[in-house]
Amino acid sequence: MNQPVSLIGAPTDVGAGTRGSSMGPEALRVANIGPVLASHDLDVADRGNLSGPPNPNLPPVDGYRHLAEVQAWNIAVHDAVYAELALGRRPILLGGDHCLGIGSISAVARYCREQNRKLRILWLDAHADFNTQTLTPSGNLHGMPVACLCGHGPKELVEIGGHVPAISPKWVRQIGIRSVDQGEKRFVHEMDLEVFDMRYIDEMGMRHTMEIALATLDANTHLHVSFDVDFLDAEVAPGVGTTVRGGPTYREAQLCMEMIADTGRLGSLDVMELNPALDVRNKTAEVAVDLIESLFGKSTLMRTRP
Length: 306
Hints:
Order of helices and strands: EHHEHEHEHHEHEHEHEH
Pfam family, one: Arginase
Number of helices: 10
CATH class: Alpha Beta
Binding site for Mn(2+): 98, 125, 127, 129, 228, 230
Structural class: alpha/beta
CATH topology: Arginase, Chain A
Strand order of the largest sheet: 2-1-3-8-7-4-5-6
EC number: 3.5.3.1
Cofactor: Mn(2+)
Shape: globular
Enzyme class: hydrolase
């Protein structure tokens, strides 16, 4: 039996500009994420949904929208993800908007520090999510989680997990990026974040991209994947609040997931920004579950499980 898996729902869109990603966990369940993973000889426990404050839908205050609510949700996520890791299980966080990556990844980083393990984070997204209070055009905190995790953000968020910064930018590989604000772009270069944008993928191919992104993983490395569904091209995944044309095709995304699975190192997963209110007959949730199945070893006859 493979390492057991725990599903944790975080039904909030408190960090987003568009309402609706709060319904993401249920859409993934409707698309049978639990039974699909269980069909791969996985012990799957659905822990249900976390609870937190509702979305007040207010304008930004001092450059941040809904900071207190985002903090509360991320503390709940941190505690739930850390608890599953401590039980020896693999947490899968069902979002919700991508601000929740702060709680999820700070929990994984805390666990890795305590276990003396290295951490590698694959951030699959159309956006770098490296905005700050002064750079953000909107104040929406789902555009800031990577910056917060690297120590650049409000005290209420950067201190979740008890270590500032929670992670080093050197642990992150961003894949599929194609929408970055001007000031954010300068900050990404300044912090030396490793980004494989769509031009890189177009020129070098997904296989080469993933070989580099996964290079130097070893038995002591915990691999965390933060999968924003808008990573995918909008034709493949219309059900997201911030669609950006020109993302990876279905086949490129499948290759990406299969190469991650081949490492045998996947230790935790976020599935973020699925917005059923903008979807077509739950198509995007079904595509997401299909790709997650590949992350956990779905294989054609040509591939045997490593």
